[in-house]
Amino acid sequence: MREALIGQLEKYIPFNEQEEQDKEMILQALRTQQNIFSRDNTYMHMTASAWIVNKNRTKTIMAYHNIYNSWSWLGGHADGDEDLLAVALREVKEESGIKSVRPVSEDIFSVEVLTVDGHVKKGSYVSSHLHLNVTYLIEADETDELVVKEDENSNVKWFDLEDAVAASTEEWFKERIYSKLNEKLLK
Length: 187
Description:
The protein is of the alpha+beta class.
């Protein structure tokens, strides 16, 4: 699977300078880090996110993330799974309760290297580190019931695309990630 992901990333055409730089960093880590798919690598590890859209591509799902006190996309750690699309789909179901999800494409939608500040999770301190993130475009059924995953978020809901960006309190994500995802979606 690692080689398949490297192949996908090599073919991936970056959308902007951020993606150009981050793609190269992720590729270098995939080629040199033995445990890059595990949180045992405390400096950096692979994660997968989803930009979840409705059928009409007019809305997205955001969760109110407990650690960051902000509305954010859904996603999570690979935790040993090298199939990042499967990770993204699993995380969407776990974090939102939504059952009817499907990838719009199996291709990578976006790439990001994300800084994670030190924080406490489940009573233990987690040092600052990097998430080497691959994002997929996922379609979900707007009529499915949304369910809060209390250990991670305190709310989950559909937003109009621009309202989703505005709802986040993380300026860097608003400017560099969520706006970019919407721009790519509407291309």
